[in-house]
Amino acid sequence: MTAPWNDGIREFVLAFADDEHLMGQQHAEWIGVAPFLEEDLAFCSIGQDELGHAASLYALVAGEGDGGEVDDRAIDALAFDSDPTRWRSCHLVEMPTPDWAHALVRHWLYDAAEELRWQLVAESALEPLAEAAIRADREEWFHRRHADGLLDVLLSDPEAGPRLQAALVDLLPIAVGLFAPVAGEAAAVDADVAAAPFDTRLPVWANRIRDRFAIDAIVPGVDAACSGRTIRSEHFEPMLSRMREVLVLDPAAVW
Amino acid sequence: MRRYEVFLKKDGRDEHRHAGSLDAPDDAMALVLAREAYLRRAEGDRLWLVCRDHLIVGAPEFVAPNADKPHRHNDGERIAGRRRRLREEGLPRKEDSA
Predict the structure, then answer these.
(1) Is this complex scored with an ipTM above 0.85?
(2) Residue A2: C-alpha distances to residues A34, A58, A66, A125, A133 (Å)
(3) Residue of B29, B35, B38 to mutate, testing the A interface (most A Cβ within 10 Å of its Cβ)
(4) pTM score, two decimals?
(5) CB contact at 8 A, A44 and A30
(6) Closest CA–CA distance from residue B30 to any residue of chain A (Å)
(7) What is the dihedral of CA A182, A188, A189, A194, to 10 degrees?
(8) A152 and B28: CB-CB below 8 Å?
(9) How many CB pairs under 8 A join A and B?
(10) Average pLDDT of chain A to the nearest whole number
(11) What domains sit in chain A, N to C, each tagged with a CATH number?
(12) What is the Cα–Cα distance from B69 to B65, expressed in whole angstroms?
């Protein structure tokens, strides 16, 4: 049986890769400035894991669905593509966080959704994707434990608690965009690459938010105006420039 | 924040060895953070954390070495000197008389 692959599936995997890549990148921007040394190490480890997931997903895209070895330069070409129209990231992972409370809440929100996202491809007809899901599951367990461990301590704190709740209110409308589908998702579901559209898991995620933050939060639906993730937020361009900063110093260099 | 002492054990015959210390808000977070601070590159497969509050600490003046008690240092010098002297004097040693 040949592995399923077409433009829709490619876009579906690409969107997942872009989210993982930019989330890892965002976490990495806290290196050296996280609240304390131990957290600095743990948070950048988590970012590194996300970058690893992104690399395996980009490799799948670069190899046209084949799980074999792919030249690192093919992965870089996707990961550092200067053309904004090729990107399918959600806006949550494009925005900088003004403070640690936002970074921590985003970490929790993202990883709670990511667990559900990997579950949908755990038995993917695209075998390398199912294998990536197994590896990711091991690492994601640790990410959730980290985020929950901090929230266990901080949500009941009289100073930190309200700041975290305020960050949640800020982030929720943007975070829900994680579930926004690309046009190609339908093709991925048709081919059993994914078990179901990601937004079918939105109610599960919403319940976890209510349990975690002990609030009766109204989780908005996916905005129909997201246009299949083809529109970049205002934060995308500055972020991409930061990521490409070293690359553009010497475009001919071989890394 | 609480301070924890971190002990790691490589597999096999090694004992747990002190690897360093760690700040964490509670026991659960100490485990999470220790894994990334001390076990990033598979430096061990067993981990002990001891909260410093639970350490029983001997004050330096209490554990000060008994610097003025040379007789407790059993370095064999006195016995060796005595045997050398006996040998040089040609006197029978204990084992010769048996």
Answers:
(1) no
(2) 46, 20, 10, 10, 20
(3) B29
(4) 0.87
(5) yes
(6) 9
(7) -100
(8) yes
(9) 38
(10) 93
(11) 7-249 (1.20.1260.10)
(12) 9
